[in-house]
Amino acid sequence: MMSDSARPLRDAGIVSRSMAAVVDLVVVLVLMGGGYLTVAFVKFAFDARTFTFPEVPWIFTTTGFFVACVVYLFACWSITERSVGYAVLGLRVSNSKGGRVRVPRLFLRAVFCVLFPVGLAWVGLSPRRRSLQDLVLWTRVVYAG
């Protein structure tokens, strides 16, 4: 019988990684919506008679979404090696040997994943189940089990 540390790591496939990405997208959108509603509530609390919902210029929405996604992924991966989506699907990010990824590389991975999400599609074509981000940054996503 193999111990947990001797058990070979299984790389996650396109379906589980895509589902995790969708969960993470929903989490970021909920967080951003919560932030917007918080600002609206504070504005309402200070002047209820002339309250209108705050308008957000598109550049702040786009930039805010990019920053929120990068910070979310970077923070989650740095602290627990998992985002909420990864945790739900039993995945974790690791280096090419299965160990912890260093912080600077996690930041680059978060930026790369947000700027070029279509790189995830390479998992479906790669015999080693690696995304373009994984290939460039020498990372992998494995089942945590």
Would you mind describing this structure in some detail?
The chain is mainly α. It contains five helices and two strands; from the N terminus they run H-H-H-E-H-H-E. The chain has helices spanning 14-46, 58-80, 84-89, 103-115, 132-137, and strands at 91-95, 139-143. The chain has a two-stranded antiparallel sheet with strand order 1-2. The two termini are 16 Å apart. 23% of the residues are buried.
Report strand order across the widest sheet.
1-2
Helicity level: 55-70%
Q: In percent, how much strand structure appears in the residues?
A: 5-15%
Mean pLDDT: 92
Would you report the number of β strands?
2
The helix-and-strand class reads mainly alpha
Low-pLDDT segments: none
Terminus-to-terminus distance = 16 Å
SS element count, helices: 5
Keywords:
single chain; 145 residues; mainly alpha; two-stranded antiparallel ribbon; 5 helices; 2 strands; 7% strand
